[in-house]
Design a protein that fits this description.
52% of the residues lie in helices and 0% in strands. It has 97 residues and is mainly α. The N and C termini lie far apart (55 Å).
């Protein structure tokens, strides 16, 4: 069985799916999680690379911060709506009726 040796470049589409795929490919290649922040810029292009480039230097060494920055930059309105729905709670003056 042949595994992908590297993820395809990401530049704008579904960032959440791409990041998940990056994690799977990284694990399949036995890349250590502590190295992911160093490796991910090689697979960013266009707007995604611009987001990374604008990050503070220390944040560029933290994969979780890179992931958060990319998710924030490319979050689409449906994702925002789903997040709002998932985090919504009933207010004191509201009922389920």
């Amino acid at each position: 069985m042949s595994l992908p040796s590297r993820p395809s470049p990401f530049f704008k589409d579904d960032v959440a799916t791409w990041l998940e795929r990056f994690g799977h490919i990284a694990a399949a290649n036995n890349w250590k999680p502590e190295d992911w922040a160093r490796l991910i810029p090689a697979f960013l292009d266009g707007q995604a690379l611009a987001v990374f480039s604008r990050m503070p230097g220390a944040d560029k060494a933290d994969f979780k911060k890179i992931k958060s920055a990319l998710l924030a930059a490319f979050r689409s309105p449906p994702q925002l709506a789903m997040t709002a729905f998932q985090t919504r709670s009933l207010l004191p003056d509201e009922s389920l009726d």
